[in-house]
Amino acid sequence: MALDTYVGFVRAVMVGRDGLHRSVLLDCVEAAGGRDPVSHLTTGNVSFRAESGAAEGVVHELEAGVSSVVGRTTPVILRSLDHLAALVERAPFDGAPHDAPRARLVTMAQHGIGSLELPIVSPRGDYHVFAHEGGDVFSITIDTGGRVQDPGGLIERAVGAPVTTRAWGTIERIVAKLS
């Protein structure tokens, strides 16, 4: 059976902290059944290859492995490389509501988002959630002269399930490296 490439986005970790060194993360992926793991950046992004029907199982075991290392429940949000490449190709930030954002973000849930009334603008105006597709929510942050917050917490409460947020540039770099 053919192997597909997947990216696991480990929520709320930094590689090198809480005992989760790069080698430990890669060992967790291999122990979970993922093949050829590669760690990307320090924000808990790891690619691996697996049979398409086995990827969810790899993620389940990876969550358990990482959680045992860091000492807390640690969700891993899974995306196929094909899915991420298609997102990059569609350029979802071309329609963003501000032409000079501080950051472009994608917040990912493991499964679909359901209904989310858009747009959402924070009370301080520092983030704008403007689009969603499947389990991916697109937002920008704007420098308003104070601390800038991302919308991950708001989206997580709306969805009722764990999410993780990454800079769009991270997604672009991972796709470019793996394609």
Give a written overview of the molecule.
It is a single chain. By secondary structure, the protein is an alpha+beta fold. Helix content is 31%, strand content 30%. The protein contains 5 helices and 9 strands, in the order βαββαβαββββαβα. The protein has helices at residues 22-31, 55-70, 81-90, 152-159, 168-178; strands at residues 3-10, 35-40, 45-51, 76-80, 103-109, 120-121, 127-133, 136-141, 163-167. The strands form 2 sheets. It has a 5-stranded antiparallel beta sheet with strand order 6-7-8-5-9. A 4-stranded antiparallel beta sheet has the order 2-3-1-4. A hairpin with a 2-residue loop joins strand 7 (127-133) and strand 8. Helix 1 (22-31) packs across helix 2 and helix 3 packs across helix 5 (168-178). The mean pLDDT is 92.
